[in-house]
Amino acid sequence: xxxxxxxxxxxxxxxxxxxxxxxxxxxxxxxxxxxxxxxxxxxxxxxxxxxxxxxxxxxxxxxxxxxxxxxxxxxxxxxxxxxxxxxxxxxxxxxxxxxxxxxxxxxxxxxxxxxxxxxxxxxxxxxxxxxxxxxxxxxxxxxxxxxxxxxxxxxxxxxxxxxxxxxxxxxxxxxxxxxxxxxxxxxxxxxxxxxxxxxxxxxxxxxxxxxxxxxxxxxxxxxxxxxxxxxxxxxxxxxxxxxxxxxxxxxxxxxxxxxxxxxxxxxxxxxxxxxxxxxxxxxxxxxxxxxxxxxxxxxxxxxxxxxxxxxxxxxxxxxxxxxxxxxxxxxxxxxxxxxxxxxxxxxxxxxxxxxxxxxxxxxxxxxxxxxxxxxxxxxxxxxxxxxxxxxxxxxxxxxxxxxxxxxxxxxxxxxxxxxxxxxxxxxxxxxxxxxxxxxxxxxxxxxxxxxxxxxxxxxxxxxxxxxxxxxxxxxxxxxxxxxxxxxxxxxxxx
Length: 494
Ligand code: ADP
Fold this sequence. Notes:
Distance between the termini: 88 Å
CATH superfamily of the largest domain: P-loop containing nucleotide triphosphate hydrolases
Number of strands: 8
Bound molecules: adenosine-5'-diphosphate
Strand order of the largest sheet: 2-3-4-1-5
Shape: elongated
CATH architecture of the largest domain: 3-Layer(aba) Sandwich
Number of domains: 4
Number of helices: 20
Order of helices and strands: HHHHHEHEHEHHEHEHHHHHEEHHHHEH
Largest sheet: 5 strands, parallel
Mean pLDDT: 86
């Protein structure tokens, strides 16, 4: 609209100046320069207007090169996804059978498990162009902008497919729960419009006969999604992408160390066992941090010690240079030693590091080897975990006759285990409905469990006081002990 008015008035002004007898050459030259500048800036301004979507979509990612083979673990999820993608690849046969085309696939699971990676591999597998956006990018102050962005995203997918002469396109929306949350009660108008636009786009997904579109979305909160999104014909294929098990972790570690100089002493299987609960992204981070530690030390190979530091960093946070007083350091050593000794008694071979230097929020820490991946907990296992949690405070009480605030997190963890005992019917209360039981009774039982285990742990530590004191001296000297060194000391003192 603006451009023609601008040009028209320019020509009129020029004619008027000519009529008055001015030389038009400098003016025409100036107009030329201004026009050239506007022309060059044009696409960038337009790009800024549509924001991140355009940036993401037009990035080198529009035709991903990620292959399913580059995703570690997740065998079941990969298999399910590949089967679902057959709908896109063998669309003719699907049509022959009168099967409704697949429009949406929902990937559910914790962050960093490889959902984005899966969506990209899906695009590679089906020879599709790939455009992506995150739910949070649609949340704007202005009503209507989110819906416009959804329209842009789908239009962009079709345009890109044409440009690259592809017949398939995948639109990936990460964090879909941000725009697709349940619309009960106090819903937000902007979210509603964005979600409605997404539903409209999905319903009319076949408007373009030349480009077949598939929408993939990721969330960690499937329970939060509006049922309208999950209806047949929308996101009706759900694939869960869980945290990797030990075998999966090993595969992810192998993938991310392919390009790194590993020392022959590095045992990836051991690292996979030690990283229970880590996501693919955290494992990638471990390999990267290990390489950075090796580089800092100017070592030609990445060794087990670099991996040990990297796991600590990813698990607990960056090392801090908070300087502790001698007195405080000693208390931290007593506390951590309590945890470490009891951990070895509960499950021998389980300590993988005892460290006195502060990292993240902790002043010192004991990292434990979780053993096998565990999905079932018996009463013994839960009580053992509670003993380990309370051992830090018990050791402080034994040595100083008093406890400190350092045990707050330990108590929180111990309470979680005690709750699990009560709620799974393994306490004195028997099998109960936690929602119906009297809260006083519930609290008293938790307190009794913790008090009993605490007293027992304190007695156990008192019984080995001479050994404790000797180990304490060694730990204060060394400041850091590997699990193996700690166990050697334990057997020597026993
Ligand atoms: P999500 O979308 O589930 O949050 P991403 O796919 O964005 O996770 O993963 C982030 C990064 O973590 C990836 O780029 C990759 O380096 C690493 N990663 C995550 N899961 C895996 C996996 N299963 N195999 C290999 N690398 C992985």
